[in-house]
Amino acid sequence: MAWFRNLIQVSATTKPFIKPRNKKNPFPFPITQLFGLAPFSSEAINEAPQVNECSNLGPTKPGEKPRVVVLGTGWAGSRLMKGLDPKIYDIVCVSPRNHMVFTPLLASTCVGTLEFRSVAEPVGRIQPAISKEPGSYFFLSKCTSIDTDDHVVQCETITDGVRTLDPWKFKISYDKLVIALGAEALTFGIHGVKDNAIFLREVHHAQEIRRKLLLNLMLSDVPGISEEEKSRLLHCVVVGGGPTGVEFSGELSDFIMKDVRLRYAHVKDYIHVTLIEANEILSSFDVRLRRYATNQLTKSGVRLVRGTVKDVKAQKIILNDGTEVPYGLLVWSTGVGPSTFVKSLELPKAPAGRIGIDEWLRVPSVQDVYAIGDCSGFLESTGKQVLPALAQVAERQGKYLAELLNKIGTTGGGHANCAQDIDYGNPFEYRHLGSMASVGSYKALVDLRQSKEGKGLSLAGFFSWFIWRSAYLTRVVSWRNRFYVAINWATTFVFGRDISRI
Amino acid sequence: MAWFRNLIQVSATTKPFIKPRNKKNPFPFPITQLFGLAPFSSEAINEAPQVNECSNLGPTKPGEKPRVVVLGTGWAGSRLMKGLDPKIYDIVCVSPRNHMVFTPLLASTCVGTLEFRSVAEPVGRIQPAISKEPGSYFFLSKCTSIDTDDHVVQCETITDGVRTLDPWKFKISYDKLVIALGAEALTFGIHGVKDNAIFLREVHHAQEIRRKLLLNLMLSDVPGISEEEKSRLLHCVVVGGGPTGVEFSGELSDFIMKDVRLRYAHVKDYIHVTLIEANEILSSFDVRLRRYATNQLTKSGVRLVRGTVKDVKAQKIILNDGTEVPYGLLVWSTGVGPSTFVKSLELPKAPAGRIGIDEWLRVPSVQDVYAIGDCSGFLESTGKQVLPALAQVAERQGKYLAELLNKIGTTGGGHANCAQDIDYGNPFEYRHLGSMASVGSYKALVDLRQSKEGKGLSLAGFFSWFIWRSAYLTRVVSWRNRFYVAINWATTFVFGRDISRI
């Protein structure tokens, strides 16, 4: 018997509570069907999905819109989806997160300069078609295998944190597949990094850093704690002197100098930041900028240490020469490399294990597969160098590929195995626009040289910091987030950073 | 050998990296002491805290400032701390969260109308002394026992989520103790509530609801999922028709009507809200307002069901008459009762198990102990009724007690066992200012009657909603949060609610 009919009875026997405004059943199908009482079984679900039977994600027919499947919602995948024309293609996006992270500002969220939501852009706002159009979808899932012969990807839902749901599998046929899966943080096989260090690549990493930092600040104030333990808890160690590590160190020292002194006055003398780097900090920047950054960070109290990490324990790092460095918070940002899934794909590979692509970002030897962003690299046969793993590269590739796919679609090559004779036009060319990094205390570096050896303008100081902020403010994807980033910055300036640990 | 000296050597052997700006050791104590290499042992810490030896939290001496220990950072405790004069008292606050939650607006954060941080106020901003003054502290801990004879509380640190730290215990001597521990959500002993339902009392509850709601919206869109399962996932059930349950249902229906239709168009017909209440919704409100709320909620698509829950399973509720109600999200708000810790205290008790207090909010039979807010209630001997568990009551009691304690402090009764002969002045009198509740769609109820039977103004509609918003905007504690709440409301109005699941 249907529970809903029962409920109305229950109400009717006492005082009528439900006043049906319109007589029509609020559900578009019979109530008995609505909540089947058979227990939900994950096995049943896992068996269920036969692409052609229970979903409209089977191979598209000639008269239908062709389907682009995008794996990933990073810079590359998001920029691609933004540029794809939903009138030409159905767009299906598969990713374990439903938003793009504005990574260059992520370091600022760890200490409360910016709020987490200000740097996260929902995919549905980047490409509204995926939440509206009948054939376009976003699936909170990960891709588990790619069948390039049949033009099918196998996916599995993400259900983190919800105990009562088991993940289930489903298949999607594609006309065009764009692999934009990004990269994973490198640990160089060092023991204990994954267990004890926090990376800085996702919003939940920044949340974890903020919670741990505030917890340590509060714990170190508890009576009975030894001086040694207090200093350990409040020792923040950053491993890796790239832009992320330097910007995070700068933000942390700003937080210490402006907020900890005021709001955690009892322990302010115990908190310290150490940045460990095996080579040079900011090695891609101009030498004068590097020197400026070194001076600026040292002045703000960040200790710069040249060293290589050998082992990471729960409360201390061991360096190659045996030195032990106790820590309370350990942030790891030593660059990125291909993920296990990308490594496992049977596709041509570029140097360093990335998916190999040609000048038009196609994966050769298979039909209709493209790869962009950090997961891809030019094949040696193209004679081009593998581009650096930068947001700038990923974004430019996404934009280029969106235009290319739109062009292919309009010239009749949108469906699977139909693009062989299309004129692909100009190949992708990357022109580096320059690099920026903030170093704290309203100071930043702006390096406008086109390559490490090239010549060009390089600036450092308050004016650069102003350029840094303005540039990011105009580049944050939506007006909503632009507005919030500006408001967050203004609030931090006036009221200080938020220190509630929620 | 000290690791820091080692590190400088490492740097010196390659290119010098650290440029000591000033020769002086950046640490205020010898480096060898800074990071003792002995492993941190929780046993050692648990043994360590001898109140008088390693902390300055032992009994205060006659010449020193007396110490008020406040347990809790809810409405009562926070308002008390705001009012206490740090020139008269050292203030020590013990609570498992370092912020006050502006509970009436918590329901709005679950669907992204407001941001989580806009409704959380750090204690350090409410009473800056606790982060600055040498004898005032905030401890992220819970109180585990109270020794009223010796004027000592025993506490234990909170270290949720951090694997490598064990909690440790410490003691604090008090001159005045204020118990403001609040209450716990009532489950009436119904099996499965704690495991499967989400309460709505803390920021992390709101975060959990938001994550689960967005997860279910996305999962229900996955191919291969049955109609039954889709409807189950998107069935949001609220148990309890008090202001929290009603406001949450209203917010949810606003979210569905404005944002889900736009951003989750594929599944918009499957999402429904059911509010289950055993008696009347909003039973403390005027009967006309109740009728208005019932109509308004029904119009917004909320199904109001009169029923009593018997059992809660992972994916369905079972009502008393055997009806099974499948759900994807279950929010439980059926009122509050005393916590296990409050029940365990050997203090006089008021009806319903609250800590018994006299007209001056003192706990009789013991010296220097006060109890305010939801954890306390007038003793039968006072001839007064136990006040309802409302923010309004808690806030008024906090304000009264702050003034009373300041007065006691200035007239020489601040120290332990010194307040027997003080004139306590007027007893605490509660005057109900009225109740408010929003019901969604820019509508709210305002009931200005002084009691359930009394006469007075009662309003419902858009104007009430305007009063509701304005009243809360002026009552949010800090200017920072007032500003953020206003900005959040404006942004939601212009851009819609945020749907990134972070």
Structural summary, described in words:
The structure is a homodimer of 502-residue chains. Chain A has 502 residues and is α/β, with parallel strands linked by helices. Chain A has 3 domains: 37 residues, no CATH class; 238 residues, FAD/NAD(P)-binding domain (3-Layer(bba) Sandwich); 208 residues, FAD/NAD(P)-binding domain, CATH 3.50.50. Helices cover 33% and strands 20% of the residues of chain A. The first copy, chain A, is built from 17 helices and 23 strands. In chain A, the strands form 7 sheets. Chain A has a 7-stranded mixed β-sheet with strand order 7-6-5-2-1-8-19. In chain A, strand 21 and strand 22 form a beta hairpin. The longest helix of chain A has 21 residues. In chain A, 53% of the residues are buried. The interface between A and B is large, with 121 and 123 residues.
Task: Kindly list the characteristics that best describe this protein.
disordered N terminus, alpha/beta, 502 residues, 4-stranded parallel sheet, homodimer, FAD/NAD(P)-binding domain
CATH topology of the largest domain in chain A: FAD/NAD(P)-binding domain
**Biggest sheet overview of chain A:** 7 strands, mixed
Tally the structural domains of chain A.
3
Report the strand count of chain A.
23
- 3D shape of chain A: globular
Mean pLDDT of chain A: 86
Q: Which CATH top level class of the largest domain in chain A fits?
A: Alpha Beta
- Largest interface here, residues on each chain? A-B, 121 and 123 residues
Structural class of chain A: alpha/beta
* Poorly predicted sequence stretches spanning 5 or more consecutive residues of chain A: 1-54
Number of helices of chain A: 17
Strand order of the largest sheet of chain A: 7-6-5-2-1-8-19
> Which architecture of the largest domain in chain A would the CATH scheme give at its second level?
3-Layer(bba) Sandwich
Characterize the quaternary organization of these chains. Answer: homodimer
Termini gap of chain A: 44 Å
